[in-house]
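fyi for ur records
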Amino acid sequence: MRAASPKPRPFHISDLHGAGRLIIDATAGVVGLVEAMHHAIVARAPVIGMAPEGGTQGITGFVYDAIYRSIRVTGGTFSAGWDALGLPAPEVTSPEREAIVAAVNGLWGDHLERTHNSLAIPMSFRIDGRRLALTASALPDKIASPSSRLLVLVHALCMNDLQWTREGHNHGQALARDLGFSPVYSHYNSGRHVSENGSEFSGLLEQLVANWPVAVDELVIIGHSAGGLVARAACHEPAGEAAWLKRLRSLVCLGTPHHGAPLERGGRLLDSALSASPYVAPFARLGKARSAGITDLRYGNVQKADWAARDRHDQRRDDRTPTPLPTGVQVCFVAATLAKRATDPRSYLVGDGLVPVPSALGQHADPRLALTVPEANRYVAVEANHFDLLSRADVYDVIRGWVAPG
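which gave:
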């Protein structure tokens, strides 16, 4: 029998700790920005050109050092005080709190993880917003009627598992009702590199399949937006050796930027423009604070090899290592366009507002990078935005047709 569900809390006092740490880090960053501008002015740097090397000197440098020390002491004292309280985050919180924390993770999740901030989301599988313990003894208590048909849904950047429900519809719940799937939802820090999330996702899938209450005959994964990249990274990670991959029948990607998104490429151009003058170059630091999960969307990085050999902001062209689709798996792509026709020029430029149609369909001018699937495994939803893919009836009907028993 399933235990009684705890009531969700709107926020938790431990969130103040994470938010406070983030504010302290941001304060240090702003002070660094001001010092860099101060140094450029004192050094009489040219309006256009490289920023002067080094930092402020003399009394000015001493003042900035004192400010940095003060920030570090404040941050250390603040963290020590909260650590002494030992207040764990609640298991269940409100959808509003979940949405805010997910957005913060999407924007700065790699920083949260690197600084051990309590707001960083640990990867897990959840049902109804409650984390599953992936052990053979614990799983049966959480799964009311386990099916041999397992469905795992992977959310997008800056989103969370609760947001699969949109306008009263949830693809996972609908497929459970219509086709007898058991839906499980991933919950993760979307600001980390796609490859890092993919590697951890693969490991958790191995535990989930191994300890599922009944033998898993069929596994289906649905990824929305960047969630599709995480799923592809997971498929690449075990090189065909993982038990879960041998049970994977279908991978469905909804609005996934397989070959990147224009907004992130625009962000790189803005960084370059700001860096042209030493007087505004410090402001480029603000843009570069965006997470690794965002910069991976510049060209659709899936593997660690796509970013590990350089600073993640330095990828100036699409030089990714080709990542083929998993073999023996039905792979299906859904794209969306704001236009009335899939052939409208807007479909190729802006697509659903975030991802162009060719990127979502895996099409690429370089045949090494192109992701080819049968025409029957591609669908374009017209007059739809990026988030309509979660609720449109025609999109669901196509998904249901793909994953229905053959």
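Residues 13-90 form one domain. thats all i got for now
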